[in-house]
Amino acid sequence: MRAELEAFLTLLPADVILVLDEAYIEFVRDPAGPDSLDYVRADARWWVADVFQSLRAGRLADRLRDHARGGGRDPEPGAATVQRQPAGPAAAAAALDDVEFLEETLRVVHRGVDYLQRALAELGLECLPTQSNFLMVGGLGEARQVYEGLLDRGVIVRPLASYGFPDASA
């Protein structure tokens, strides 16, 4: 993941602002995964947001307008960096501070993802590797039919045909 991100960053034109959305960053298990804060500290055009900050898209739009008014550069390197901290209501802050709950949630989710990957493989289905709390499964047949069939059984999936994967669901 780190090499791919670094290769992508070298291709960005100087007038492009990059926002890295880390809505699922807590689910990443790959110890070699990049820490985007290292990158945004190096260049004021690169920003990072987490799920709570992403909910405040209005703030992001304001930051982009301010950035544009300043000639495309922030007053100081790294000034545009959004730190990984809750920006929402007190409930969000309290949830993020509950480390025990977060760790247990991650254990349960990872155990579930591992189980589903094994079970799907045993069924002969293609399941792509994941660093999140969801899976992309191919070889299911036409995605819309799979979606409707599973929905009838109380299982909600997202058909991925509109993303260019006609036989995959997440």
Q: Could you give a short description of this structure?
A:
This protein is mainly α and 170 residues long. Helices cover 45% and strands 8% of the residues. The chain has helices spanning 2-11, 36-42, 51-54, 57-69, 90-97, 99-122, 143-152; strands at residues 18-21, 46-49, 126-127, 137-138, 168-169.
Give the ordered list of helices and strands.
Answer: HEHEHHHHEEHE
β-strand percent reads 5-15%
> Which structural class is indicated by helix and strand composition?
mainly alpha
Low-confidence residue ranges: 53-58, 72-87
Task: Give the total of domains.
Answer: 2
Major β-sheet annotation: 3 strands, antiparallel
Number of separate helices? 7
Strand order of the largest sheet: 3-4-5
Please report the total strand number as a whole number.
Answer: 5
Give the oligomeric state of the chains in this entry, treating copies of one chain as homo and distinct chains as hetero. single chain
Question: What would your notes on this structure say?
Answer:
- The protein is mainly alpha-helical and 170 residues long.
- It has 2 domains: 2-89, no CATH class; 99-169, Aspartate Aminotransferase, domain 1, CATH 3.90.1150.10.
- The chain has helices spanning 2-11, 36-42, 51-54, 57-69, 90-97, 99-122, 143-152, and strands at 18-21, 46-49, 126-127, 137-138, 168-169.
- The strands form 2 sheets. A 3-stranded antiparallel beta sheet has the order 3-4-5, with helices on one face. Strands 1-2 form a two-stranded parallel sheet.
- β1 (18-21), α2 and β2 (46-49) form a beta-alpha-beta unit.
- The longest helix has 24 residues, at 99-122.
- The radius of gyration is 19 Å and the shape is globular.
- Residues 53-58 and 72-87 have low confidence and may be disordered.
